[in-house]
Specification:
Elements lengths: L2 E13 L4 E13 L2 E6 L4 E6 L2 E14 L4 E14 L3 E3 L2 E3 L11 E15 L2 E12 L2 E2 L10 E2 L2 E11 L4 E6 L9 E7 L2 E6 L5
Antiparallel strand pairs: 1-2, 2-5, 3-4, 5-6, 6-9, 7-8, 9-10, 10-13, 11-12, 13-14, 15-16
Length: 203
């Protein structure tokens, strides 16, 4: 079985007389016998294997609040460095010290902005919303693995416009505004078939 030891140091507080809230945390984790999702054999069959040792360390930052009584926002950022700290080989799957752990992006960020126009139509408020997220490049498998694909970084943006009162809401939305087509999150070549899992196109 795997076993972890975790250390975390954080701080949180308020700015502008409580209008803005911030958090910051640094973390460090050692992981014995880490369980990794991998692909085995030339057929590319998915499996969970136990490596020898790994470490993750990083930083988490966020801030949210009300700039005015109509405008609010949220921003967040994560940095993660996750790698093997010892060589291993089991069940046809192997990894070397210093290899990145699969499916973990080094940088991730997200944010949103909301703006309210009160009583635009009768008792209905107009609510404008925009959000986005960013994910840096990542690997699908251990380095040299059967499905060792590198996924490019990508950004996704969504927006909506709503008419809202105390009982009803009418919303028009658009997801993946820029129609990001390279937002692949996993892939595999299994039993002679290739497939990819990606973010939905613009809708």
């Amino acid at each position: 079985a795997d076993e972890t030891e975790n250390w975390e140091l954080g701080i949180k507080g308020y700015l502008m007389e409580g209008q803005l809230q911030y958090t910051a945390a640094a973390f460090f984790t050692t992981w014995d016998n880490p369980q990794l999702n991998a692909f085995v054999s030339i057929a590319g069959l998915p499996a969970v294997v136990n490596a020898s040792e790994a470490e993750t360390q990083g930083l988490e930052l966020s801030m949210n609040g009300n700039v005015t009584d109509r405008l609010s926002f949220y921003v967040g950022y994560n940095y993660t460095d996750a790698e093997l700290t010892d060589d291993f080989a089991v069940g046809g799957v192997s990894g070397a010290k210093g290899d990145d752990l699969p499916n973990i992006a080094e940088h991730m960020a997200n944010g949103s902005v909301d703006y309210i126009i009160p009583s635009l139509v009768a008792d209905f408020d107009l609510a404008l919303h925009l959000d986005g997220r960013y994910k840096s490049s990542s690997r699908n498998d251990l380095a040299g693995g059967v499905n060792d694909d590198k996924f490019d970084s990508f950004s996704i943006f969504n927006a909506s416009v709503s008419l809202v009162d105390s009982n009803w809401a009418l919303t028009l939305f658009a997801n993946n505004l820029t129609d990001e087509t390279d937002a692949v999150t996993s892939s595999a070549s299994q039993l002679g078939s290739d497939w990819e899992s990606a973010e939905r196109p613009r809708s």
